[in-house]
Every structure is written in structure tokens, then in C-alpha cells.
Design brief:
alpha+beta; 6-stranded mixed beta sheet; 10% strand
Length: 354
């Protein structure tokens, strides 16, 4: 990966999609509507800022060995929006009295460990990039995001959304946007943008499964479980097992994700539906992982990682491109005609991309 490639498509990626916040902003409950509107306005400002800045990749000096240990730093934004904030925990420091700080620290570590132990990758850029995160961002900020250089977590409004560090898959999701940035650098609109979001859901789920030592059969395949408030009609932000079923709530609306190309959503909103149509490749991964069984990061995850990082996936790739290259990656690693090849073909056919 040359530096110029990493600069091509700076994106601002949030875990809660704008279409969901738009719905809440129309609530008759003034507090809920105001919190959603503030989050949307802050996201819009950050998105604009991202378009006029570049991502500076950090590479170690030539001949410098890359450590197998992470380099984590957690900052407290103290409910402001100026980053990174006050340093509150560094690598190897004792646990904080603030549970949010500790969850962020642990989530960064879990992400680093899965990529290292599962795929031999040293941090986000594969060159030992330090992992920074800021917690307690803004007031009632209902989101978490990767800004191209660090993680940022809101506390939620305590009503519809809880603290955004509670779900390790959300932490993994956002950090995986960094992995995508440093590898295929998928453009953040249309099907390539939906693939970008799907990569983050896939590896976010794998990070949770790895940290819990779960098999594909044991996993819940939910993204953001535990994030929704107790009075919300739903279980998570997205379901990879059954896209479109994660929530159905008066304030949030109904989960719009399709599971197959038959229900593909053609929209100009949300960068062409990147958080919506990601349900299709998400479901394909779930089908592959459960068909193969066992620990999902060992075979299904390996195929997805090979496809993302193999150098053949174009930045403007569509779903068919990814399906084709994933089958090729399965054959390259496991051979033609094996269980992995068959699982890939069956899954992509099921979601309408055979």
C-alpha cells in the first residue's frame, strides 16, 4: 500500500447511520429530537472537515521491527468536541476508575489481538500504528466514529442509546474502517461504500466472537447489541443473521436492511445506502461462516481478509466484484471443490450474487 493510495478517499464513518438519526430527529419528544439533531449536525461538520483533510499513513523507520504489542492511549474529551482531549490512560497503565475508559482500552486491545493472532496484521496499518481513542465526546452524542486517525465515542443520550463503548463489536467495526482505509480503500458510496460498511460489520462481529471464544453457531451475529436503551423496540443496530430484524420501534423506525439483492434499496441518501445495502454482503458472510462452522475467523474470516487485502479489490468494487474475488481467494487458500469453495458459491447464490 503506497501512501498516495491511502490519501485517495478520506471518509468519515459512523456506526449509527444518518437515516436512523433523521427518523429520531422527527420525534415528538423534544429531548430525543434535539439530541438526534445535535448528533446529525456534529456528524455533518466532521464529515465536511474530513473532505478537506488527508489521511497521513504512519510507517515505521526502515529496519525497525514492529512490536506484537499494541500502543493504546485513551483520552477524555470531557463532553467537548475538541479532540483528542485529556490523556487518561496509556498502554500498560492501571485500570481507570472510569468504566468507559476501561471498555475503550479493552476494545482497542481486542481488535488489535484479533487482527494479529487471526491474520498476522500489526495494527490498523500493518505497521504498528498507535491506537488512540477519545471517550465522553460531546453532549448526548449518539454515535461513535473513526475519523481517519483515531476512535471517538459518544456517551449516548441515556435514553435511546447507551454508552457507545458497551459493544466491543462497535469498537471493532469502527477500527476496521481504518484497516479498509489502509488496504482496498473502498470508496464510501454505493456498493463499494456498502462493502466498506460490511467489512466493518464482519470484522466487528469476529472481534466479539474472538474475545468471547465463540463458534459461528454460538454467536448472536448482532452489531451493537446492548447499545439500544431499555425502552427501544429492538436488539441491536443490525443483524447479519437476519438483516431487517434488528429493530422495529416508534422512534427509530424499522430496520431497512435487505438480506438479498431482490430487496436492494436504490437511494441517494446515506451515500447511496451504504448502511442499508451492507446487509446483503453481511448475510453472505453469515451464511459462509455458519456453513463452515467452528470459529468464524479461522476460515470464513480468513477468506474475507484475503479478499480485502489481496490487492485485487478495486476501490470502486461492487458486490459482484467482491463475490468473485472471495471465491478466488477461497480457491487460492483452500483449493477448488472443497467445503470453503462450495460454501462461498452457495452463499453468494442465496443472496442473489451467484
Amino acid at each position: 500500500m503506497d501512501a498516495s493510495h491511502a490519501h485517495r478517499h478520506p471518509v468519515f464513518c459512523t456506526v449509527v447511520p444518518p437515516h436512523l438519526l433523521d427518523k429520531i430527529a422527527q420525534s415528538e419528544d423534544t429531548r430525543r429530537a434535539d439530541a438526534a439533531q445535535r448528533t446529525l449536525e456534529q456528524d455533518s461538520l466532521l464529515r465536511t472537515r474530513r473532505r478537506v483533510t488527508t489521511v497521513r499513513g504512519i510507517a515505521p523507520a526502515l529496519g525497525t521491527p514492529v512490536s506484537d504489542e499494541p500502543r493504546r492511549t485513551i483520552y477524555d474529551a470531557q463532553h467537548r468536541t475538541r479532540l483528542p482531549g485529556k490523556k487518561v490512560r496509556g498502554e500498560g497503565d492501571a485500570a481507570s476508575k472510569d468504566a468507559t475508559v476501561n471498555r475503550a482500552y479493552a476494545g482497542l486491545g481486542a481488535t488489535y489481538e484479533l487482527f494479529l493472532k487471526g491474520f498476522g496484521r500489526h495494527s490498523i496499518d500493518d505497521s504498528g500504528l498507535a491506537l488512540d481513542a477519545s471517550v465522553h465526546y460531546g453532549v448526548d452524542y449518539n454515535n461513535a466514529f473513526w475519523d481517519g486517525q483515531q476512535m471517538v465515542f459518544g456517551d449516548g443520550d441515556g435514553d435511546l442509546f447507551l454508552d457507545f463503548t458497551v459493544s466491543v463489536d462497535v469498537i471493532g467495526h469502527e477500527l476496521t474502517h481504518g484497516v479498509t482505509q489502509y488496504t482496498a480503500n473502498l470508496e464510501y458510496h454505493g456498493q463499494s461504500g456498502a462493502l466498506n460498511e460490511s467489512m466493518s460489520d464482519v470484522f466487528g462481529s469476529l472481534i466479539k466472537q474472538y474475545s468471547l471464544d465463540q463458534t459461528a453457531e454460538d454467536a448472536d451475529w448482532l452489531i451493537g447489541a446492548g447499545l439500544l436503551g431499555p425502552n427501544v423496540g429492538g436488539v441491536a443496530l443490525r443483524s447479519m443473521k437476519a438483516p431487517g430484524t434488528a429493530y422495529d420501534d416508534d422512534e427509530l423506525g424499522k430496520d431497512p436492511q435487505p438480506a438479498t439483492m431482490d430487496d436492494y434499496v436504490d437511494t441517494a441518501r446515506d451515500n447511496g445506502g451504504v448502511h442499508i445495502n451492507s446487509g446483503i454482503p453481511n448475510h453472505a458472510f453469515y451464511l459462509v461462516a455458519t456453513e463452515l462452522g467452528g470459529k468464524a475467523w479461522e476460515r470464513a474470516g480468513r477468506i474475507w481478509y484475503d479478499t480485502l487485502t489481496g490487492g485485487e479489490l478495486a476501490s470502486d468494487a461492487d458486490f459482484k466484484d467482491f463475490a468473485r474475488l472471495s471465491v478466488a481467494a477461497a480457491v487460492a487458500r483452500y483449493g477448488d471443490g472443497g467445503a470453503e469453495h462450495q460454501a462461498l458459491q452457495k452463499a453468494w447464490s442465496t443472496v442473489g450474487l451467484g
